[in-house]
Amino acid sequence: MKKALNYLCAALLIFGAACQQKEKEGNKEATEEEVVISDDERMEWWRDAGFGMFIHWGAYAVPGGQRGDTICGGGAEWIMDKLDYTIEDYEKEVVAEFNPTDFDANKWVAMAKDAGMKYIVITSKHHDGFCLWDSKVTDYDIMDASDFKRDIIKELAEACEKEGIKFCFYHSIVDWHHPQAQAPLYPNYNAGQKDQTVFNPEFPKYYENYLKPQVQELLTNYGDIGVVWFDGDWIPDYTTEMGKEMYNMILDIQPRTIVNNRVDKGRNGMEGMDKEGNFAGDFGTPEQEIPDTGIDADWEACMTMNGSWGYKPSDTNWKSSEDLIQKLVDIVSKGGNFLLNVGPDPKGNFPPESVERLADMGKWTKVNGEAIYGAQASPYERPEWGRYTAKDGIVYAHVFEWPEDGQLVINTEIKPKKITLLADSATILEWDADQSVIMLPAEVVDPVATVIKIEY
Ligand code: FHN
């Protein structure tokens, strides 16, 4: 009897295990049948977002672009290369001093959200190779090489998640610290890699055993990633085969993630769009410039508020809030996104000049965001007095130059049915259909950009 019972228990155990296995397989089959996400579906949130925050932050904030009496030309984040630090000096004088005790991810996310930004792209690792997350692939990271010992990427990703801001990261293919990635000419890392005949023969090992594993851990351990923003695509060591493999690897891990065109080799310099050919990447990346006309492709212009991506107190060449708001309108009117940069200081604070501009942009987007978010380029030629954006059968006229006679000449193809001000929807504006003219209020509504909603 006992033996029979044993057999029965064994049989039940085996049957139970088989059921569990079937269920697992069943789930497995379910995941394999997961619906393929279309590019349009994947890009939708990004196309609607229009406005994001770029954050260039890392150990390079410590020197802030200055070494002794010498100031680094260009972006302060290039100081390791441009001011000839040896790796040992950089580790000792810069990385070991990076301890941003004022860092508060919630505060940063609140400022981005209040400015009207819908996503944040932070440098997980810039060209200096120092990692802002707890990497299992290296000790050259915030947990092991600095006294801060907090996972900055984790804290920012969680703060973004809490506030409904898409968390994204920038990642540098270039790495001046990793022995298999450095150019043989380092320092002066062939600054910008002008000499395309200079290779590091070890680079494929860096790509396989370091670059890919680090991108994998960032895509695996920090929740949903909105965008992976590659940079450093220009070095000849990095090939289009590597770029295409990297792109596919990212989508295998997170099928909804978007990847910029610097993942591959298609980018045509700083104007940022892809040259002819078949290259990986979901959007073009004009840098420090805005295309002259609209582009019928996905693109995002990235720009600094002063002249440096990284924190650089000596650079006081700040763009005005008015200029930044009009750049946002110009970019969206041409079908693009605006990725506006902040370079936090070594303690983890946004520079006051950045805080001021973000607040000004927030005041404007709170009133006029309807004409930015989800809006696209209009079919109408750019007017003299400003820009048009369009959404859901509505045209938004963004008036930069208020006509002295109060008569705003609009495109003759626009046949209005109702015209209001976004700043004051109760005010209905009159228009002369024959003259294609809108009668504006006597007083300028917003000297930076008044938005008129034209339903037609
Ligand atoms: O070399 C970088 C630079 O430091 C900065 O990160 C910009 C921002 O996109 N990208 C490269 C220059 O094109």
UniProtKB/TrEMBL annotation:
GO cellular component terms attached to this protein's record: lysosome
Record keywords: Glycosidase, Hydrolase, Signal
EC code(s) of this entry: 3.2.1.51
Glycoside hydrolase family 29 N-terminal domain mapped to chain residues: 21-370
GO molecular function, one term: alpha-L-fucosidase activity
Domain Alpha-L-fucosidase C-terminal span(s) in chain numbering: 387-441
UniProt KW Plastid keyword: no
Entry's Gene Ontology BP terms: fucose metabolic process; glycoside catabolic process
Site (May be important for catalysis) residue list: 302
The keyword Mitochondrion is annotated on this UniProt entry: no
Major enzyme class: hydrolase
Matches recorded under SUPFAM superfamilies: (Trans)glycosidases
Source species, domain of life: Bacteria
PROSITE patterns the UniProt entry points to: PROKAR_LIPOPROTEIN
Biological role: Alpha-L-fucosidase is responsible for hydrolyzing the alpha-1,6-linked fucose joined to the reducing-end N-acetylglucosamine of the carbohydrate moieties of glycoproteins.
Similarity comment text for this entry: Belongs to the glycosyl hydrolase 29 family.
Protein name: alpha-L-fucosidase
Organism: Reichenbachiella agariperforans
